[in-house]
Amino acid sequence: MAHLAWRLAQRWCPSSLQVISFPVVQLHLNRTAMRASQKDFENAMNQVKLLKKDPGNEVKLKLYSLYKQATEGPCNMPKPGVFDLINKAKWDAWNALGSLPKETARQNYVDLVSSLSSSLESSSQVEPGTDRKSTGYETLMVTSEDGITKIMLNRPTKKNALNVEMYHEIMHALKAASKDDSAITVLTGNGDYYSSGNDLTNFTDIPPGGVEEKAKNGAVLLREFVGCFIDFPKPLIASGQCPALGHLPSPSLGYSIAVYASDRATFHTPFSHLGQSPEGCSSYTFPKIMSPAKATEMLVFGKKLTAGEACAQGLVTEVFPDSTFQKEVWTRLKAFAKLPPNAMRISKEIIRNREKEKLHAVNAEECSVLQGRWLSDECMNAVVNFLSRKSKL
Ligand SMILES: CCCC/C=C/CC(=O)SCCNC(=O)CCNC(=O)[C@H](O)C(C)(C)COP(=O)(O)OP(=O)(O)OC[C@H]1O[C@@H](n2cnc3c(N)ncnc32)[C@H](O)[C@@H]1OP(=O)(O)O
Questions:
Q1: Do residues 109 and 175 both lie within one domain?
Q2: What pLDDT does residue 389 have?
Q3: What is the ipTM, given to two decimal places?
Q4: CATH number for position 81
Q5: Best substitution site from 62, 155, 157, 159 to test ligand 1's pocket, by max atoms within 8 Å of Cβ?
Q6: C-alpha torsion sign, points 4, 161, 223, 260
């Protein structure tokens, strides 16, 4: 049924699933509708094409709806079905403009583009552009200092949700860190979420082979991603001051030498809520670390743990007060980084190597089960509900 709905969605509007990849491609100018501010409107459309930074789906929908209203007037399309996510979002945005006059919509479009151009320009000056450039990462900030390589997830406005680019960049950063001259590696997140897990919009970018191919590619990517954590040779520390959701907690918690959390952090693996199943080897590591009963509460029922609870369960090494978190953690990290690196590496190897083969086998099995889950109605409905803003975790 979910397959069918997705296929229908694709057939109805083949480009729909990339929407929100950039609305400019859909801005077919209806020249006859232009009057007084035609020149401004055309300029604004050109300006949109030149934006260097993606303004986000909300803004793109606003641009789309204003464009449609300005050129065609009030929404005149039949309402798309609930599974046709992208066209439904576009329809909702356009329809919400009601009977706004064309001229006003045109003016609003021009104003929005102008504010967008200036805010994106100024934000790119404030943003750590130099960090990005020096590391070459779009979704991470990676620094290396005092024997510590710090990999910081850097999509704070999306709660550090892992888009496909971020999966690849984390793998790349881990591989680079395994070879650099740092002694330890720290994984952390920028903003008020360590991570909100898989970016659920990953599910909307359907390749020509359809949802089956999408699920297969996702399983390959996830297996490779988790594999990088299993094979990572140096001490890896997860440092989380805020909530961690979904699967980054699983691999990074399962294989970290240490997990430091502030008393504000929470740990949540809501696989069932999303119609999915455990990954990151959590089906194997969590029952071993916590106890089968507690792991079931977390992995099957999606129970959220506070940092204190996670520490009592052995999932977290130590909890610090939020106000002194950074100071206390970095004092420890700097001391660890001064220990002989080869000794640490060999000690880690001896602890982990016995389990390595098993972990790779568990990873493969979990990814294969997930591949099926991603094609299920349960999963599709959960994703649709989040993307249509009906649910949050
Ligand atoms: C290929 C391998 C796949 C492996 C599968 C792994 C399983 C998992 O990872 S399970 C976890 C999946 N994650 C979620 O379901 C979290 C969904 N997000 C939320 O429930 C909420 O956003 C939040 C509780 C994390 C935060 O709520 P809050 O009200 O504070 O902020 P928002 O306004 O909701 O978020 C801000 C901004 O960020 C976008 N966003 C947040 N999380 C995600 C996400 N996981 N995927 C995509 N987008 C996310 C959210 O839509 C907002 O975006 P806009 O500002 O553009 O509206």
A1: no
A2: 74
A3: 0.97
A4: 1.20.80.10
A5: 159
A6: negative
